[in-house]
Design a protein that fits this description.
Elements lengths: L1 H27 L9 H13 L2 H33 L1 H14 L8 H8 L3 H25 L3 H9 L4 H39 L4 H10 L3 H32 L4
Helix pairs in contact: 2-10, 3-6, 3-8, 3-9, 5-6, 6-8, 8-9, 8-10, 9-10
């Protein structure tokens, strides 16, 4: 029943969005060349689905995203578990992280292109940077908030080192780490599209730029819609992964 309610809510949300979109065009009397109508964009979506353009660009984007996101998550969680247990070292590292964290990954793009050339790697590196810091900070914070009772129990059973991190600290910290995973999905997906707009010849970001250059604003809007929907599905996928992990550890 709850799933049915969620589906109904999603459908209502899209209906309201389309209605507001259409109303804005009617009230503002915008020309179709400046602000395409929903039906025009729908026709554009169908055209790029039929000719395979959308699938081709989506496959490229999702592979880049997975490569950058997964590598960032693995690296950030490992380092976060370590730094969270070593407060003196984290005290030295934290100021560096706080200086680098606010810098947009796109700001690094001139150096990234020089170091890694053009193609897939610049976009993957940009995704890595965008996803790394939210997961690192959430992991360090989560480790430092682990209930002291768990650590005392581990000490009584002489659980130390890697086994302590794997069996006690990581499971206890995971609910907080999951928040960082959700934040990282959003930021890295945003910067993936931005990176594809400046340094690649394929992907959803490139699709938008190429459509803009061709004055096909219906395809620009189609690309924007698909990017938003894909971002929503990716966030839901992380939520399902979180639920799966919680079931394994008996939290649900």
């Amino acid at each position: 029943m709850q799933k049915l309610k969620n589906i109904i809510n999603v459908c209502l949300s899209f209906i309201i969005l389309i209605a507001v979109w259409h109303a804005a065009i009617v009230i503002g009397k915008y020309d179709a060349a400046l602000f395409p109508a929903p039906l025009q964009v729908w026709d554009g979506i169908l055209s790029i689905i039929k000719d395979g353009t959308l699938l081709e660009h989506f496959q490229v984007s999702i592979l880049r995203f997975l490569a950058g996101y997964i590598s960032a998550v693995v690296a950030a969680i490992i380092l976060g578990l370590i730094f969270g247990r070593l407060p003196l070292i984290w005290g030295i590292i934290d100021p560096i992280v706080q200086v680098l964290r606010p810098v947009s990954p796109i700001a690094w793009s001139p150096f990234i292109v020089l170091w890694f050339g053009i193609g897939n790697m610049p976009a993957i590196v940009i995704i890595f940077i965008a996803a790394f810091f939210p997961v690192l900070l959430s992991t360090v914070t989560a480790v430092r908030k682990v209930d002291i009772t768990y650590l005392k129990v581990a000490q009584n059973f002489e659980i130390k080192g890697f086994q302590l991190l794997r069996k006690i600290i990581f499971p206890a910290a995971f609910p907080y780490i999951a928040n960082g995973l959700h934040i990282a999905v959003g930021t890295s997906w945003i910067f993936l599209v931005a990176g594809e707009m400046v340094g690649t010849q394929s992907g959803l970001g490139y699709l938008i730029v190429d459509s803009r250059n061709s004055m096909r604003l219906d395809l620009v809007m189609a690309g924007i819609i698909f990017i938003g929907v894909a971002g929503l599905l990716l966030d839901k996928a992380v939520g399902l992964f979180e639920q799966w992990i919680n079931r394994i550890w008996g939290r649900n």
